[in-house]
Every structure is written in C-alpha cells, then in structure tokens.
Fold these 3 entries.
Entry 1:
Amino acid sequence: MSIYAYLKKDHEKIKALMDKIKVLGPEESSERSELFNQLKATIITHSKAEEKAFYDPLKNHPETREQVKHGEEEHQQSDQLLSELTDPSLTGSAWFQKFLTLKESLEHHIEEEEKDVFFDARRALDGEQAEFMEAAMRTEKQRQVADSSISKRPNI
C-alpha cells in the first residue's frame, strides 16, 4: 500500500465518524460523546503522523512546500475546533454548530489533500518513497497510540 491509499483510508474513517455524529443531531447523548471521542483521537493521531511521515518529507520539494504549509495550518485550525468542542460549557445547538464547522473544514482539507497534494506528491516522489512513507506513518500512529495509553495510566 502507498501513503496515498493509507491516508485515503484514514480520511474515510474520519468522514464516517463525522457523518454518524451529524445524524445524531444537536441532542447530547453518550453515543455522541463516544463517537466524538473516537473522532478526536483519530484526527489527532492522523494529523500528527501525517505531518511527520508525509508532510515533513514533502517540505523538501518546491512543488509541494506551500501545500504542506497550508495543510499544517488547516491541522492547527482543526486542533483549535476540537479543543473548543471539548469545552464542557459548549452544549446543545452551539456545540453542534461548532461541530458542523469542524466537519466542513475537515471535508475541505481532505478534498484538497486528496486532489491537489496527492497529485503533486506523486510527481515529486517515486513509488518506493510513497511505500516508505506509508510504513513510516503506520509506525508513527502506533507510537502515538502507545504514548497516549501510557499517559492515561494512573500513577502507582
């Protein structure tokens, strides 16, 4: 598998989680909270691994440098929205409107990445590099999950 197929698979998971949350609507529920927590963890892990395994190497190529900068800015915007959505004082329809903003932002980011960034990255990288990036991203995601589970353990 190449980095492109791997990222697309992650993107599909993110979109599916967002669609499930949207269907639940503005009413708070344990199901919505659980889905949002899954979405948040997926986005954070994906973004950090993507920046390290995919974006960092693309910064060395003139045809992708600006797109990577733009993608990182969009990741920061998503992080900010996720933080706001985690605030317990944001509830009901206000929470849901903020969630819809996140959903729209992420769908825009995914579309740009899959269309524009992937196109230019395919011109800048060969197939072997793309496969290496996929392996690096897999490893980075596993490292992040392990790190987050360590930080969640109670102190003994």
Note: The first helix runs from residue 3 to 24.
Entry 2:
Amino acid sequence: MDKGMDYLNKGKFQEAARELEQNIQQEPDNPVHYINFGNLLSTVHEHDKAIVFFQKALELNPDAAAAFYGAGVSCYKAEKYSEAAYLFQQALSRSPEDADTLFMAGMSYMHSDNALRALPFLLRASELNSSDSEALFQYGLCLANLQHVGEAESVFTSVTEIDRNHSDAFYNLGVCQAYFDKHEDALLSFEQALSIRPDHYLAGNGKKNMQEKLRQQEGKA
C-alpha cells in the first residue's frame, strides 16, 4: 500500500498529507495521486478543496470512476445531495456494478426527497452485497416511503435476521406490523428494539400504543 494511504487509514493526517503531496510532486500526471489527496481532504471535512483535486484527476483521466465517486462523497457530506447524485451517476456509468456507489446514489436521492429514483439503486446495492444490512435497511425505508408497506415489512424482517442488533430495523418492522393490525407482533418488535437500545423514543411510543390497542381488544372480548 502507498505510504500516504497507509497513514490516512491510520488517521495520521499530517503524515498522510506530506506523503501524498510528495507523490503529486514526483508524478504530477498521475490521477491516482490527486484522488488520494482528495480523499484525505474529504476525510478532514475540507470538501470544497477535495473537489478541486478530484476535478484535477478527471482532467487527467475523464473516466476515473474513483474521482467521480470521491467528488460525490464530498458533495454528499456537504449536504449537496443533487450534485452528489449526479456525480455518483457519472461514476456508475464507468463502473455500473459497484455496490458502494449504488448505495450512495440511492442515499443522495433519498435525501433529495426522491424515493422513487432512489429505489433501484438501493435495491441493486443490497443485491450485490447480501450481507450489507444497512443497504437492505435503507431499501426497506425507501419501500415504506413509497407506501409499499408489505414489501417493506419483508425487507425489515430480513434485516433483523442478518443483524439481530439493528434496533431501527426492529422498530420499523413494528411500524409495518402495526399498519396491518398485527398488534402482538408489533409489540414484540418494539420491545426488541428497546432491548437493544433502551432510549429508543419512537419504539417506546410504539410499545405504549400497542399495549393500549391490546387492552382495548381484551375489553371488547
């Protein structure tokens, strides 16, 4: 591994900057060095400066998917979600089956309040990496956002099978179950979310609501 990137991965940012700058000086026409320096700047939240380095990399190699991805990440972190979505799309046109890029494109559209555009990206990201519980969870949220509650319930169930400590997946599973009046199942899901994260306020409210629903059912029996 490049010494500068090794420093970056270890969180030694000053040492990384020194090594990566030397790489640029020694090989000024190598786009990889500009991408690496851009990643460093993005890591330390210098997003505008990072984008300048990614742009330089793209001047040297217009098909550098990693440069488009890095610029997309910088825009995403800066909450420029429309720009991020465009950049991730550009990265995908060069590397269409990259799960991370698909996930980030989907998240950019979600933050842009465009769940319909996000859906195919999050679906494909979860298909390419079946062990990625977060990609699958976000796909479930996207389905729920689009009112596909039954499909979302199935997805959240799958997330809880992959990650038994995913409190938000249990909470959202409970919400879907409550939607279909599965009050006992929903109560169990909310309780599971609370067992993982006792301060889960929404799950706490969900539990109270389900307990009240069940009391009402018993009173009518």
Note: The CA atoms of residues 16 and 82 lie 30 Å apart.
Entry 3:
Amino acid sequence: MLDVNLTDVGDFIVQNENKKILSDINTFKRCLISKAKTKEIHHIEPTLLDEYLATFLLPLEKSNSTDFEPCSLHGIIASVDRYLKRHGYGCSVMTETGAQYALTRDSYNEKKKVLRNR
C-alpha cells in the first residue's frame, strides 16, 4: 500500500478537476492579471473578490465576441465557487445572503435579464 498524505490528495484533485472549472478559473485569473491583481483567488478578501467578480461578469463575452447564455454565466460563477470551496475559502458567491457578494449577485441578475431580453 502506498503512503499517501494530504498533499498527494490535493494534487490528485487538482490534476483531475473538471476541465470546464479550470477553463473558467483561468479566464477569471487572466482578467485579474490584466488588472495587475496577482493574488491567488482564494487569498482575496470577500469584499474585493466581490468587486472583481462583478466587474468581470459585465463585459464577459465568448471568444467570438458574442454573449454568453445566462446559464453559462451561472456556470462560470459556480466554477469559481467550487474552486473557492476546494481551497477552504469559507463562503459562497451565489448562496451567501446579505451583503457578502451582493454586487456580484446583483450584476449577474441584471445581466441575465438583459441577455434574456435580447
């Protein structure tokens, strides 16, 4: 039997993560880097992460410059949530109530309405 530690478990999970989650996280990371924000996502305090996510969602388009479907935007946020949860972040972007991540939720909900009305 192999001697496996928590680092090995974490490495295994990261290597086998859903490719969509990794793609979504990398898209968000590129957005942060373009704004000279280099901290790992799970090390950003909730207030700032809320601002970064909200400003990330509004101009977000597919690579062919067309809009995402509302469910795809939700999927991107869900990917960020899963990533944060996996890194022990402690709060969820879409399921928190109150002020935490209110800006992201409101931005998402308004963009979803706009997209549905097009």
Note: The chain is about 60% helix and 0% strand.
